[in-house]
Structures are given as C-alpha cells and as structure tokens.
Design brief:
It is built from 16 helices and 3 strands. By secondary structure, it is mostly helical. It has a 3-stranded antiparallel β-sheet. β2 and β3 form a beta hairpin. α6 packs antiparallel against α16 and α9 packs parallel to α16. It starts with 35 loop residues before the first strand and ends in a 26-residue tail after the last helix.
Length: 391
C-alpha cells in the first residue's frame, strides 16, 4: 500500500474517477483496535469486550485503566501494584506548580491542561525513552497527574492554597479532595469514579483520532496527548456537558423546560447534550448517568437539576426524536457534586486520559503513518502570468 494509506491513491491516479466520501470520514475505518467498540443501532458500548454497564457497576476507574492498557482486568495483587504506582505519580513537577499561578490568571481550564501536559514532557522521569515500558509509565503518570493540574489551577484561580495529593484516597476521591480541600463522602467519590469509567474511552472520536495520527508519526506520548486535548477543546467535540449545564440554569425550573426546548428548535439551535454521531438510540452511558443524577440529587437534597433534565429529555424526544448522550446527565451529576461548570470538559479529559494514552500505545505497537488522501475540487491547468499583468 502507498503512503496515502487505506482509501488513498498514487500520483498517477489523481485524475481517476472516485466516489466521494461523506464529509467527516463517517463510516471510514481508520484503525483496528482492541480497546473499545460501539453498536450504534442498539446503544451498546464495550471496553476490551466488557459491557460498559458491567464495568460501571462493578469496577473502579483504576481497574478500567488497567483493562485499557493491558486488555484484561487485574488480579488483586496487580491492582494493588498498579494503584501504588499511580499514587506515587500524583505530585506535579515543581516547574508545573511554579507556573500554575500564571496559568490560573491567564488561561482557560482547557488551555491550562493542554499547556501543562505539553510542559510535563520536559520533566518526565523517562525522558525521551520511547520503549513500550517507558511509554506505559508515561501514560500512567499522565492519568495520575492531570487531576492534580486541574485541582491546582482551580484552587489558585479562586484564591485558595493548593492541596497536596492524598496518598490514602482512590483516584476520583483524591481529585475531589484536592479540588475542594475536603475529603468527600464515599458515595460522592463512587459517583465521580463511575463517571470517570463512563468517559474513559469511546473508540475513534476526534480527540482519540488526533492522538493516534500524532502517534503514527512516532512523536512522543506527551505530544500525542497534547493534540488530543487541543481537539477536545473544540466545542463540536468537548464542551457539551458545560453547555448542557448552562442550559439547565437558563431554564431554571422543570415547568419551563418544554417551552425552552420548543423555542430552541424553532430558532434552529441545538439542544446541548442530545444526539450522537454513532448512537441511533439512547447512549448507554446516558442511561447510567440519568440514574446517578437522580440518586445524587436525592442524597444531596437537590433534585431540581435532575427534574429539569428529565423534562428536557422528554421534550427533546417528543419534539425531535432526540436522545441524550453522555454529556447531558453528566452535567447535573457534576453540578450537584460541586464541580464548577467550566471544569466539566477538563474533567472529561481527566477521565479520557486512560483511553487516549492506551490508544497511543496501541498505535505504537503496530504502527503505520496515518496519511489519508483528499479529493481536489479546485481548478486545473491554470496559466501563470507576471504580477504586472494580473487583473
């Protein structure tokens, strides 16, 4: 196969008749993976063969990280060793901590995360070692440290002292502790842990594809993940949970939800957190998050956001046949947990770090540079004229 890769053409074929592909490369297979799979027609999602429902109900996020990186669930001894390493890697490098006050004053949360991950490459203990073993360690450090970056950023921008990582808390619980300065209840920690599992991977989305393209050039792990974060920053990929929360706050009460949905649709505006590029029915992650939204609201004595969400869901389905995706009910879950709205997309990145890094390592393991073709639609055989004669 030529450098153009799957579906490409050589220079001698440029004038051949080709069937145009749908924009956005929909339905084009860009890679083979063992990490995750989707059945869009029936609303199913698997990680390494395990249904998302089973993983969300029975495993911790740390187990899911192990599953995505080693393609099997860990034994107790393996998990203990895995968790111990991740806990040891939570502390941010001094350089990142020193520059964080400037980032907190000058940048958005996603810009901070992109910059911090890029800068962290210079201080990674494995340096420029690109062996499989070193790349696994780099991957786990990124999973472990990105929550620290985000918590430090938020504490500083709100005029609070940074909180050191807690060596006795699990991944999700430690993030809430570093963010708020208060050790969370086990119930809240478990809810956040489940959302991390639900966001951990999702096949060939835009940010994952970006990471794999960069990895296919044999650029380093941090470069690939920096690119993934940059792709997630775009509002057509990440950001729906933030916009969904803003919509819920704008609606304000359940009785206003139907009119709000109708008004948005009449103005040809999107209902944020609804519809999906792959699922033709309800996103399986949304089913789980809907339950968590209700349970979390009940536990905190604040069901308003769940009730508004439920009415929006009902109206969107009735008016347009739209189903919620993972981001819709995640918004109310995060809000009730006390997470600021503008941190919701960065938290998506914190959770997806497991999948991004696993995809990068999978790309390295069986690599060929990703180089698709394009369809030229401009003019041909134009004649050059001197600049003085150009009209």
């Amino acid at each position: 196969m030529s450098e153009t890769g799957h579906g490409g053409s050589t220079a001698s074929e440029t004038n051949a008749v080709r069937t145009p592909q749908e924009k956005g490369l929909r339905e084009v297979v860009a890679a083979q993976t063992r990490l995750s799979d989707i059945d869009g027609e029936n609303g199913r999602l698997w990680y390494a063969g395990y249904p998302i429902e089973d993983l969300a109900a029975n495993t911790t996020y740390e187990e899911v990280v192990h599953l995505l990186h080693r393609l099997r669930l860990p034994t107790r001894a393996e998990l203990d060793s895995f968790v111990e390493f991740m806990i040891e890697q939570r502390e941010a490098d001094k350089f990142i901590s020193d520059v964080m006050p400037t980032l907190a004053q000058q940048t958005s949360p996603m810009s901070m995360l992109r910059t911090s991950v890029s800068a962290a490459s210079a201080y990674d203990p494995d340096g420029w070692d690109s062996s499989p073993e070193a790349n696994e360690r780099k991957a786990l450090r990124l999973v472990a440290r990105t929550p620290t970056f985000l918590a430090q950023y938020h504490r500083l921008r709100t005029g609070q002292e940074m909180v050191d990582p807690h060596a006795k808390l699990a991944h999700a619980a430690n993030f809430l502790y570093m963010l708020t300065g208060v050790e969370p209840s086990q119930e809240d920690a478990d809810v956040l842990d489940t959302t991390f599992t639900l966001y951990a991977d999702h096949t060939m989305n835009a940010s994952t594809f970006t990471a794999r393209i960069i990895a296919s050039t044999l650029a380093d792990m941090h470069s690939a993940i920096t690119g993934a974060i940059a792709a997630l920053k775009g509002p057509l990929h990440g950001g729906a949970n933030e916009e969904a929360m803003k919509m819920l706050e704008e609606i304000g009460s359940p009785d206003r939800a139907e009119a709000h949905v109708k008004d948005r649709l009449a103005r040809k505006e999107k209902i944020m957190g609804f519809g999906h590029a792959v699922y033709r029915t309800m996103d399986p992650r949304a089913r789980i998050l809907k339950r968590l939204s209700k349970e979390t609201g009940e536990r905190h004595g604040d069901l308003r956001w769940y009730e508004i969400s439920e009415e929006v869901e009902r109206a969107a389905l009735h008016e347009k046949g739209l189903n919620p995706n993972v981001d819709f009910y995640a918004a109310s879950v995060y809000h009730v947990l006390g997470i600021p709205t503008d941190l919701m997309t960065p938290i998506f990145a914190v959770a997806r770090m497991a999948g991004w890094t696993a995809h990068v390592r999978e790309q390295y393991a069986d690599n060929r540079i990703i180089r698709p073709s394009s369809e030229y639609i401009g003019p041909r055989d134009q004649v050059w004229v001197p600049i003085e004669e150009r009209g």
